[in-house]
Design goal:
Strand content of chain B: under 5%
Number of strands of chain A: 0
Order of helices and strands of chain A: HH
Largest interface: A-C, 35 and 38 residues
Helix content of chain A: over 70%
Number of helices of chain B: 9
Structural class of chain A: mainly alpha
Number of strands of chain B: 0
Chains: A mainly alpha (63), B mainly alpha (222), C mainly alpha (246)
Order of helices and strands of chain B: HHHHHHHHH
Helix content of chain B: over 70%
Distance between the termini of chain A: 67 Å
Shape of chain A: rod-shaped
Oligomer: heterotrimer
Number of helices of chain A: 2
Radius of gyration of chain A: 24 Å
Distance between the termini of chain B: 30 Å
Chain lengths: 63, 222, 246
């Protein structure tokens, strides 16, 4: 009895399908979240070294 | 001689000379087909059953591996830039080169099929069927392969990348080629149906291939 | 502000920051609703409870094709308008499409074993879906082959458009050929042929998965824009380094 459902004689296949889907989705979401963090970290590191984009330097010059 | 004819004749001559792709494609085809019975075993009935498939696979690989050279040789000596800058429409120039490639690489494969059919224990009718399907199907392989060849010269990467990109696109040609061969040998499907589709695939790939290859070269050679 | 203004990558980042929290919210809600309906769905008279696999398999199949369509539209943007956001959209969509294609193949395989007796069969639809998966992998390989982003984008765009021919083949393969896979029963002339008690969970799950794709796509596009910024800044830093010619 999975979540109160009787999944019949082929329950293993149904559970496996949902499990694999969950794993793949978690991996996808996880990769995107971790990648976001990594890029933000790299940008912060570059900024602290004084390397900035032209548009930001223009803003500094005008300020 | 018109520029297009000049490109065509040049490619023909280069392919036939030492270092060209002509003979080596046939040699590779021969070796691959000979390798198969060593792996599969000498069971003649089995070999004759899968013979058309093996011949088609061998032809596919032989076509693919010789396509590498289609543009890279020209790129290396600068003639690709001349072709791109010249007055001839790029699509037609590519078509001329691809046609020359087929004549020197694809067509010899077809001619060699009756001999290789012997190795696969195919009778005359079966060999003829395979040869006919290859005659009609190898142009499709060439024109689909031209897309991969142009991408690899534009990106300056060759080898396996080209094969990985092109092989999925050649799957329908392979399916219908083998299906037509088997239809002629065993039935019950009429030979005409898959054969006509194979012809259609060649015609479609002729158009799509040269336009895609021209786009790849234009975008890649800037 | 017109839609075209979002074409600027910086503006897109702002758009993404604002929109993503909402998208994440409604995606989560849609999945909760979908899963609730899924577990309450009646057993099919032929397939029993395994019909519940369909609620995963059909949406992922639709999204596997949707992914390639998104890439194809982006490819047009790259080749015709040289739009930088088009490059980003194409690159972000590829792994997502590949993942959904993988899920379609595996859920289908797990559904096929109890229903047809086999994990795999070389019929037209399964074969063309597998070819789609291989093409996704080829495109991802191509993205990682060329270092310069806009050159890579143009090469991928051409390959994407050539490969787009596979999408109608997948869709209509079950009509054109006698296949083991069942023919179209939802998106066809004459309307769906499925009972509402099963159709409703299916459509809700399809909406949920589509929202998930859009959410992940926008998030991935944001990452890609940031990655390109990192790359150009690192190039700047390398040029400005003492001892290098400038």
């Amino acid at each position: 009895m999975i979540f109160g459902m009787d999944l019949g004689p082929h329950a293993d296949f149904i559970v496996a399908a949902y499990a694999i889907a969950a794993v793949v989705l978690v991996l996808m979401i996880g990769w995107i979240v971790l990648d976001h963090r990594a890029q933000k970290q790299k940008l912060a590191a570059l900024e602290s070294q004084g390397v900035t984009r032209r548009s930001e330097r223009a803003v500094e010059r005008l300020a | 001689m018109s520029p297009l004819a000049a490109i065509f004749m040049r490619d023909l001559r280069l392919a036939v000379r030492v270092g060209g792709g002509g003979g080596i494609g046939v040699l590779f085809f021969l070796i691959v087909v000979v390798l198969m019975p060593f792996a599969i075993g000498p069971d003649l009935t089995l070999l004759s059953r899968i013979g058309p498939a093996i011949l088609w696979l061998g032809a596919l690989l032989a076509s693919l591996l010789t396509l590498d050279r289609l543009f890279t040789a020209d790129h290396e000596d600068g003639s690709l830039d001349l072709i791109l800058m010249g007055g001839t429409p790029l699509e037609l120039a590519i078509a001329a080169k691809a046609f020359a490639h087929w004549l020197t690489t694809g067509l010899p494969l077809v001619i060699v099929v009756p001999l290789l059919g012997l190795f696969m224990n195919l009778d005359g009718r079966a060999s003829a069927a395979v040869a006919l399907t290859l005659l009609v199907g190898t142009p499709a392989l060439t024109f689909i392969g031209v897309i991969g060849a142009s991408l690899s010269v534009a990106l300056r990467r060759g080898g396996l990348l080209l094969a990985v990109l092109v092989l999925p696109l050649t799957i329908p040609v392979l399916i219908f080629g083998v299906s037509a061969s088997n239809a002629a040998i065993v039935g019950p499907l009429p030979f005409g149906t898959p054969f006509t589709i194979l012809c259609a695939l060649s015609l479609v790939s002729l158009v799509v291939g040269i336009f895609a290859a021209a786009a790849a070269l234009r975008h890649g050679m800037e | 502000m017109a839609l075209i203004d979002y074409a600027n990558p910086t503006r897109f980042l702002g758009f993404a920051e604002r929109v993503l929290p909402w998208l994440i919210g409604i995606t989560a809600l849609a999945f909760v609703a979908g899963l609730y309906l899924t577990q309450g769905a009646p057993d099919d008279y032929q397939q029993g409870a395994t019909v519940k696999i369909m609620f995963l398999h059909v949406p992922t199949a639709w999204l596997s094709m949707f992914g390639w369509i998104v890439m194809s539209i982006a490819a047009l943007g790259t080749l015709v308008w040289r739009h930088p956001l088009a490059d980003v959209a194409a690159k972000a969509a590829a792994p997502l499409g590949a993942a959904f294609t993988f899920l379609c193949l595996t859920t289908g395989s797990l559904w096929g074993r109890p229903m047809w007796g086999t994990y795999w069969v070389w019929d037209a639809r399964l074969t063309s879906e597998l070819v789609l998966f291989l093409m996704y992998l080829g495109v991802i390989a191509l993205w990682h082959t060329v270092e310069e982003p806009s050159r890579a984008a143009r090469a991928v765009a051409i390959l994407t458009l050539v490969g787009a021919i596979n999408i109608p083949i997948i869709k209509w393969s079950v009509d054109w050929w006698n296949t083991l896979h069942q023919p179209a029963s939802v998106v066809k002339l004459g309307g769906p042929a499925i009972h509402p008690a099963i159709l409703t969970p299916l459509l809700v799950m399809a909406v949920a998965f589509t929202l998930l794709f859009v959410t992940l796509h926008i998030a991935a596009m944001r990452n890609e824009i940031l990655r390109r910024r990192v790359r150009s800044l690192m190039l700047l830093r390398a040029q400005a380094a003492p001892g290098s010619a400038s």
